[in-house]
Specification:
Strand content: 15-25%
Number of strands: 22
Low-confidence stretches: none
CATH architecture of the largest domain: Distorted Sandwich
Helix content: 25-40%
Distance between the termini: 49 Å
Structural class: alpha+beta
Number of helices: 17
Shape: elongated
Largest sheet: 9 strands, antiparallel
CATH topology of the largest domain: Beta-galactosidase, Chain A, domain 5
């Protein structure tokens, strides 16, 4: 219970800090401070930084006709400006005010698209430019907008008359001053890092004294050192965050070079670590493993970023700072979560999936985690984050970590993960012809007095994944039969996989033009139950799961095996 008490203390300390931080932010956005954001208007944009995000001219056409497909939702404005209508979806609102959709106008390359971009920017300046309030002026959204306006200034200013040119630069300068004041008040996480990236872009792209660039560079370096781990992961442990930050850092590196300025060593080092980290999380089909907030993969986005990766050879197998392990041989990939939860202040998207794993064979996924429906209803998120939505073991139908459901906490922090595993020791067990690891977590010790230990071993040229799940009491005392020792080990099966039972009673996992795998367990008869896969490109899909259910006081250890019996149409060879 001491662990739970410690987590609660940290949570309420964080609540107090965030309350005070938000109070200061409101003051800085109020009329007493607003005069500080006025000042000299830059004369011109020196350089438009590149944008690596994918662009689609068809979306520019949709926007011209008043249809805005943003954040997974289509909104038709009926001829009105999108900034005039009330839309309840917060993701759509943030995407609208973030202006990343300007890249589609640039891709269209027409005078019509440029005129439409200019008209929409003019609408925003008229309706929101001087009223520092609401979603439009959330610091994270402001950072996205500053970057987007700079990156696509060429299309916005194409054919612009002088009054609009000045209004654009005046508004941009005001947003930059506001962001500079707010950055230090932002909570830990990717939005604060993006704010520092935006300010570095601004110092490079607009006329500014050398001291402004030095300050922006120094602050960026400090934030990168805080948030990017030594193995290239992000402090939030969310794989998609690595991709999102790289999509900003790579153009920033190019902008330093284009302006003949020396980028900070922290920027170069972060990119050099993050590109291999992104490859670490990829399965062979290019999709990213579904851990800690990762949903569906948009493959072209990943490929665009990884074109900048000069790393030769296979991905790393060990990410100890991020808390993940990878096993890979014979066209088979296993990626596992072997780390404790991230710090509370960056755990809004974190999952209770300790010791969960995913298995892909060739370009097909077999064992997965449920992932998240990135643009779906918020009420499904707690289900996707629960331990039961992951391919790992649960104890007494309880998640290995808890989520805050306090309205006071959620209003300030969202839904942070609390009370999860504190210690997750892990060691590699690689040998000649095999790769593996042994890990355990203490997420159930405070409530049920039991540790969960998992060992995975991939061998026989990738044809055999042997697993062992063990529950034990600290000190190895006998497990009591007290009704609080019910274990469920789940293996969520990808929706594209067929699951049937052969004449020997074994479970066979098949897919068209893909490998065949067989699941067996020595101690417990596996059962098949319904499941749901949240991370489909088209939204949630029904799926199935293999379940091993037992009492730890009766069976403290189970040995299971996934064996590849056929490789895309022919027998697997040992």
């Amino acid at each position: 219970m001491a662990i739970a008490a410690g987590s609660t203390t940290r949570l309420w300390t964080l609540v107090a800090k965030e309350f005070w931080r938000k109070t200061r932010r409101r003051l800085r956005a109020g009329p007493l401070y607003r005069w500080r954001y006025s000042g000299r208007t830059p004369e011109r944009v020196l350089i438009a930084p590149p944008d690596l995000r994918l662009a689609d001219p068809q979306i520019a056409l949709e926007i011209y006709y008043g249809r805005y497909p943003l954040s997974g939702h289509m909104v038709e404005t009926g001829g009105k400006s999108p900034f005039q209508i009330a839309v309840s979806n917060p993701g759509w609102q943030k995407a609208l005010h973030g202006f990343r959709w300007l890249r589609h106008m640039r891709a269209a390359g027409t005078e019509l698209a440029a005129a439409n971009a200019r008209a929409l920017v003019s609408d925003w300046i008229a309706m929101h430019g001087s009223n520092i309030a609401g979603v439009a002026w959330e610091p994270g959204t402001t950072a996205k907008r500053v970057i987007a306006w700079l990156q696509h200034s060429s299309v916005v200013l194409q054919g612009a008359e002088f009054p609009f040119y000045r209004a654009f630069l005046k508004s941009l300068a005001m947003q930059i001053r506001y962001l500079r004041a707010m950055a230090r008040e932002m909570p830990n996480g990717k939005d604060r890092l993006r704010a520092r990236i935006a300010l570095a872009f601004a110092a490079l792209s607009l006329p500014a004294p050398a001291s402004a660039l030095r300050g922006a560079t120094r602050n960026l370096a400090d934030e990168l050192d805080r948030q990017i781990l030594p193995d290239g992961g992000h402090v939030s442990r969310n794989p998609i965050t690595v991709l999102e930050i790289l999509a900003d850092l790579l153009p920033l590196r190019q902008t330093y070079a284009n302006q003949a300025e020396t980028p900070p060593a922290a920027l170069m080092g972060a990119i050099d670590r993050m590109l291999p980290a992104l490859r670490f999380f990829r399965h062979q089909d290019g999709s990213v493993a579904r851990f800690n907030g990762m949903g569906a993969t948009i493959h072209d986005r990943i490929a665009t970023i990884l074109r900048h990766d000069d790393t030769a050879g296979a991905p790393l197998l060990h990410a100890p700072h991020s808390g993940y392990e990878r096993l890979s041989m014979g066209g088979v990939t296993v990626i596992a979560d072997t780390g404790p939860p991230p710090p509370i202040d960056v755990s809004n998207a974190a999952h209770a999936g300790c010791l969960a794993f995913e298995l892909s064979s060739g370009r097909q996924h077999y064992v997965v985690n449920a992932g998240v429906d990135t643009y779906g209803a918020a009420e499904f998120r707690p289900l996707a984050r629960a331990t039961a939505a992951h391919s790992t073991a649960t104890l007494n139908d309880t998640s290995s970590a808890r989520f805050s459901h306090s309205l006071r906490v959620n209003d300030l922090l969202g839904t942070p993960l609390i009370g999860g595993p504190q210690h997750v020791p892990c060691k590699r067990t690689d040998q000649q012809g095999s790769q593996g690891f042994l890990a355990r977590h203490d997420g159930y010790v405070a409530r049920f007095g039991l540790l969960h230990e998992r060992e995975l071993k991939l061998s026989t040229n990738g044809n055999v994944l042997a697993g062992r799940d063990r529950f034990l009491r600290p000190g190895n005392a006998a497990i009591r039969n007290n009704g609080r020792d019910f274990v469920t080990v789940r293996f969520h099966i990808h929706p594209a996989i067929g699951l049937l039972q052969d004449e020997h009673g074994r479970l066979v996992l098949t897919a068209e033009q893909a490998d065949t795998w067989v699941f067996t367990c020595a101690e417990v008869a596996p059962e098949v139950e319904e499941s749901i896969y949240f991370a489909g490109l088209g939204g949630p899909r029904r799926s199935r799961q293999i379940v091993l259910a037992f009492r730890a006081s009766e069976v403290s250890e189970v040995h299971w095996q996934l064996t590849r019996t056929a490789i895309a149409g022919h027998s697997a060879k040992s």
